[in-house]
Specification:
With 88 residues, this protein is mainly alpha-helical. The chain has one helix at 29-50.
């Protein structure tokens, strides 16, 4: 009798290792990490903007406030724009 000629079966020695199932479905992996990064940035934004402003400390040594003049708050009248007039 003739034997069938086909692919010889590969012998398996030992147990077949189980397939590792990923923790996060690869389909949603990028979405998951994007949301994680946005949540972390949102936490930093909230913490940064809810802190109180630190109080001003003392001036540095040898600081002379008389030597540093304050800027003028008055604007030259030629440069002022009168935006509150009614133009008809």
């Amino acid at each position: 009798m003739a034997q069938k000629k086909g692919k010889p079966k590969e012998r398996q020695i030992g147990k077949k290792p189980p397939e590792k199932k990923p923790l996060i479905n690869p389909r949603y992996k990028n979405t998951f990490w994007t949301i994680v990064v946005l949540v972390i940035l949102l936490i930093f934004f909230i913490v940064n903007n809810t802190r109180s402003v630190p109080e001003h400390g003392p001036y540095p040594p040898n600081y002379n406030s008389a030597a540093n003049s304050k800027p003028d708050t008055a604007i030259d009248p030629r440069l002022q724009m009168d935006t509150h007039t009614n133009v008809k």
